[in-house]
Amino acid sequence: MQVRDHVRAGLIALALVAHGIYALPIPSAVSEEQVAEPWRQRDIVLWQDVLGSVGIDVEKATLEQGLIDVTGAAHRFHQLLKTPFKPVFRFTGSNQAWGLFASATTRPDRLVIEVRREGQPDWHMIARRLDPCCTWYADHIRYRRIRGIWDGQKDKARPAYRNLTKWLARRAFAEFEDVDQVRFRLERGRSTYPWKPPDDEREYRLVRVHYRDRLR
């Protein structure tokens, strides 16, 4: 092997190690305010009951403090491991920015697309993520790069999400000639444990409406 091959192999190995470190499923530090969130409180009570069932009695406050201490220590250790690679990743923008399977949300969002036909007051649903009733443009919407645009939105819509709704609205207007409005919403539900009844309450976020005569 030539020197060039050895250098290339070494750089690839270093990149794999660096990205592997960034992708470690280590949770972020949990603060006192975050411990008080309802879904974490439910999990803490669940673990308290599980430990109690095997004869380990632990105070709820002890579990809360333990969660803060353990996640804080794990987060600091993870940051220490990432330190040597941060300058390069910051310069190239090529880091593994999310922890691989670090956690799963109990309040998932699903993209909902509705249209309103000219002269009619009601909205008609044409697309709803993972719902066989409404599958317009499903092959595109479920694609991982498209899903990554709308999934994980915070309280303020990111520019990519806003542009995605315009892109889809233009296609809806082109396909449905009698439609004059297209509405996009993120429908947030709540996942429950298998032994508990489902939660049917829904919250709609980041609503965006596009009008045919305004979207060019």
Describe this structure as you would to a colleague:
The chain contains eight helices and four strands; from the N terminus they run H-H-H-H-H-E-E-H-H-H-E-E. With 216 residues, the chain is an alpha+beta fold. It folds into two domains: 3-92, no CATH class; 109-211, no CATH class. Strands 2-1-3-4 form a four-stranded antiparallel β-sheet. A hairpin with a 6-residue loop joins strand 1 and strand 2. The longest helix is centred in the first third of the chain and has 23 residues, at 60-82. 11% of the residues are buried.
Pick out the low-confidence regions: none
> Mind describing the biggest β-sheet?
4 strands, antiparallel
Sequence of strands across the biggest β-sheet: 2-1-3-4
Radius of gyration using CA atoms only: 23 Å
What would the principal axes of the Cα set say about the shape?
A: flat
Strand portion, in percent? 15-25%
The assigned structural class equals alpha+beta
Mean pLDDT: 85
Order of helices and strands: HHHHHEEHHHEE
Query: What percent of the residues sit in helical stretches (DSSP H or I)?
Result: 40-55%
| Total count of helical runs of at least 4 residues | 8
The overall number of domains is 2
Q: Kindly, what is the distance between the CA atoms of the first and last residues, rounded to a whole number of angstroms?
A: 58 Å
Report the count of strand segments. 4
